[in-house]
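User: Quick sanity check before I run a bigger batch. Here is a single chain. Can you write out its predicted 3D structure?
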Amino acid sequence: MKTIVPLKRILIVLVVTAVVVLLALDSFAAARPFQVASGVRDTMYISKTQSNKRYKVRMYPNAQHNVLFFSASGQNGKVYQLYLFDVDGRLSRQTHIKNKETTVITNIVKGYYTFEVFSDDERIENGLLTIK
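Assistant: Done. Predicted structure follows.
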C-alpha cells in the first residue's frame, strides 16, 4: 500500500532543506578569509575587552580587509583618540576624531596589536586586533 504525501509537506521539506544549505554555505564563506589577487590572505579580527555604554565606538575592516575604519559617537564636542600598540608595546598608530566622525587607517602590517580608545583622558574601550 502506497502512502500519499501531501504536496504542502513536500514543499515545506524542500524549503527547510534549502534554508539549511544556504546557512551552511554562508557560514562557510564567512569562516574563510578573503583571498586577495596576490594569493596572500588578509583577515582582520577585532575583539573588545572593555566597552563603555555611554559611547559607541566602532572598529571594522572594509570588505577586502586591507583598511580599518574607526568611528565613535557619544556626547557632542568630544574628541576620541585611538592608540594601536604592537606586541612589544610600541605605539604603532595614533589617530583622533571628533564626535560622529570616521577615519580610515591603512597600511597596517600583519601581526597582533592591542588598541585603546580614550576620550578626555578616560579609557572608554580597549581590545585586541589581529591581522593575518
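The longest strand covers residues 122-131.

User: Great, the batch can go ahead then.
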